[in-house]
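#struct-help
A.M.: can someone run this one for me? Single chain, 174 residues.
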Amino acid sequence: MMNDVQPQASVPRPVSFAQSFVGSDAFRTLFREGMSLVEATAAYLDGEGREESKDLPRLAALAYASESMRLTTRLMQLASWLLLQRAVAEGELSSVDAQRQKEKVRLSSQNGASSPEAMEALPAQLRVLIGSSLRLQGRILHLDRLMEGKFDDAPLAPNPVAMQQRLLQSAFRS
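D.P.: on it. Structure tokens below:
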């Protein structure tokens, strides 16, 4: 007598964005970009930036010290995140272990603390590095939210075409 039980087809599991992203060329590009920014910042702050800061007026020198410290802190957080994700991609860490480690990193949004006037008084190269680090931070925070499955964090921008369509529809219903 034959068994009436049909073999169950395996149900495909959804692909994890986190797993697919950390193994992608896009992640490798982001990793290289982030580490290059860390290296460029370190070289600037240890060399040309150190010399430029000596010539700044007192208030600008204070802003330089504050912003360079915030910059290095921000880049350390971003580099830690990138290194954790690379460790997951290379199988050195499980995603669960990486999540535990990431909680120690405290990836956070961090903007400049100085006034716009004080920022303008900073050397141009420092301002460029700060801007680059803030853009990288925004991208990584966005990716991190996506990787954690938090898709609804940011409100959607209003769709002007949809708004016009609703106005037209309501006008012709009257």
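A.M.: thanks! The chain has a mean pLDDT of 81.
D.P.: also worth noting: Helices lie at 17-22, 25-46, 48-54, 58-89, 95-105, 116-121, 124-147, 160-173.
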